[in-house]
Specification:
Layout: H1 2-32, H2 38-56, H3 58-76, H4 88-136, H5 141-156, E1 160-165, E2 174-178, E3 188-196, E4 199-208, H6 215-281, H7 289-320, E5 327-330, H8 332-342, E6 351-355, E7 363-366, H9 367-384, E8 390-398, E9 401-408, H10 440-450, E10 454-460, E11 463-471, H11 483-487
Parallel strand pairs: 6-8
Antiparallel strand pairs: 1-2, 1-4, 3-4, 5-7, 8-9, 9-11, 10-11
Helix pairs in contact: 1-2, 1-3, 2-3, 2-4, 3-4, 4-5, 4-6, 5-6, 6-7, 7-10, 8-9, 9-10
Length: 488
């Protein structure tokens, strides 16, 4: 009964309307017959045929044409009120009228159907463009399922839509239902699979009235599911590519780390072992200067190992997001002076100048971390700058940032390397010419960015300059004042 109501009833109404249009036209022409020629009456009968075809479709138009021929013959061709035709001319007129009515109905019906198809294709293209445009920018399966459900519900005017995406590669299955709540029980459920080259990714479930979807809508629905499946496949491929790239980068980092650290560890360990072996063997008199030199070598190489391990631990904390800053109000000038004091042995072959104005404001920083930044930048200058050259530390305030400058008179850095030198394990020179793990500048970048600042390198006349900025204003709660400062 519901199918009859939804499909048969509108069809009968259109055909009945076509018959009524002929009846209405016949009544009017019957009243005007004394004033009209038979040819004019025949032409006027074509009008309801045309209108029926345009308004109601091809078959109602054909029905109107046959009814018009019958009415024309019965009421307006003698003998009247009979279907007999005595004159050959009248028979020819009826035949021509019937042919013209049928041909006109067919042509108008084709034009009407062509217009309908053109509008339908335009509608389909518009809806597909909207769906594709939205899916193109999505990067996760939940967003794709939500967008597919929204567009399907809006496009097809359905009662309920559900998008199910199965689990693959360890991902959990996902179901998106619109609108929320259970669907009506008296509706038909249509399931369209989301198929890709990898197999069945899920399915699109529709709750609708019986025979509600037209052939055009079913075709568009298949295109929707095809685009949804392609978007899901794009996400899967992107995830696979990202995993492959991460594994490749991880292998590359492991190789770089082993190549770099193994050399860096062996050198100080060999020096420490040789010094300890000499002291233990008794070949060196404990009262001679050679003993002091060996002990100094052990101390320096131990500090070198401690710095190397510290860099590795700092890099690990930065990459894992476990770097926790202990911010206090500190003077950048005092931190620089402290580093210079600790590194006086390393700086014996260079000249060091420190220029920090006394009126520089205190900056909320982690003392140990900023100390590490100065240590790495000064060590970089010691490695690359020729012996006897000048290393300069200076600072200034501009706006809301304090800018610190560490300059050395080493060779200029090629322009295309200025940004890459802050990458892990990136080395400009060959590893056998300059020692180091290639982590120092990368650690500096991580520490400065964790403070909300920025670090960069630039070439200037006769020197290479490393600049970093730190915000003067502390964003958030003020650092705690040390207890000893309060007691004092």
């Amino acid at each position: 009964m519901k199918f009859f109501k939804d499909q048969i009833t509108p069809l009968l109404i259109r055909h009945l309307a076509a018959i009524l249009s002929i009846v209405f036209t016949t009544l009017i022409l019957k009243l005007l017959a004394p004033f009209l020629e038979i040819q004019i009456i025949a032409l006027i009968f074509l009008l309801p045929v045309i209108f029926s075809t345009v308004l109601f479709g091809f078959t109602p138009g054909i029905l109107a044409g046959f009814c018009a021929v019958v009415a024309f013959n019965y009421f307006f061709i003698s003998p009247y009120f009979t279907f007999l035709v005595h004159k050959t001319q009248d028979l020819i007129t009826l035949i021509i009228f019937l042919v013209v009515a049928v041909v006109m109905s067919q042509l108008i019906g084709q034009a009407r159907e062509g217009l309908r198809l053109a509008r339908s294709h335009e509608w389909e293209a518009t809806r597909m463009y909207e769906l594709i445009s939205e899916l193109a920018g999505l990067q996760d399966t939940s967003s794709i399922a939500q967008a597919l459900a929204n567009h399907t519900l809006e496009t097809f005017k359905l009662q309920h839509v559900e998008v199910f995406i199965g689990n693959r590669n360890g991902d959990q299955s996902l179901t998106v239902s619109l609108p929320e709540g259970p669907p009506a029980e008296d509706q038909v459920v249509t399931c369209v699979p989301l198929m890709t080259a990898r197999g069945r990714e899920g399915e699109l479930r529709l709750w609708h009235q019986p025979a509600q979807l037209s052939s055009e809508e079913k075709r568009l629905l298949e295109a929707y599911t095809g685009q949804g499946a392609l978007s899901l496949e794009r996400i899967r491929l992107s995830q696979g590519e990202n995993k492959a790239r991460i594994l490749e980068e991880s292998d590359h980092l492991k190789s770089s780390l082993l190549n770099s650290v193994s050399h860096e560890l062996r050198s100080p360990l060999a020096a420490i072992k040789a010094s300890v072996s000499s002291l233990r063997s008794g070949a060196v008199d404990w009262e001679t200067s050679a003993r002091q030199e060996l002990l100094a070598t052990v101390e320096e190489e131990t500090d070198h190992l401690n710095l190397l391990v510290g860099n590795l631990l700092d890099m690990s904390r930065i990459e894992s997001g476990a770097l926790k800053l202990q911010k206090r109000w500190n003077s950048i000038g005092e931190i620089a002076m402290g580093v210079a004091t600790k590194m006086r042995k390393h700086l014996q072959g260079h000249r060091l100048e420190i220029d920090f104005p006394e009126n520089l404001p205190l900056v909320a920083t982690d003392y140990v971390m900023i100390e590490q930044v100065f240590t790495n930048l000064i060590s970089n200058g010691v490695k690359y700058a020729p012996a006897g050259t000048l290393i300069t530390l200076s600072g200034r305030v501009e706006g809301e940032f304090l800018y610190t400058r560490v300059a050395n008179q080493g060779p200029p850095v090629p322009e295309d390397h200025l940004e890459r030198i802050f990458d892990k394990f990136y080395r400009i020179t060959e590893s056998d010419r300059v020692t180091g793990t290639g982590l120092g500048l990368s650690i500096c970048k991580g520490i400065i960015e964790a403070h909300g600042g920025k670090i960069w390198a630039e070439n200037q006349p006769n020197c290479v300059v490393f600049n970093f900025s730190l915000p003067v204003a502390f964003d958030g709660a003020l650092p705690e004042i040390p207890k000893e400062a309060v007691d004092g």
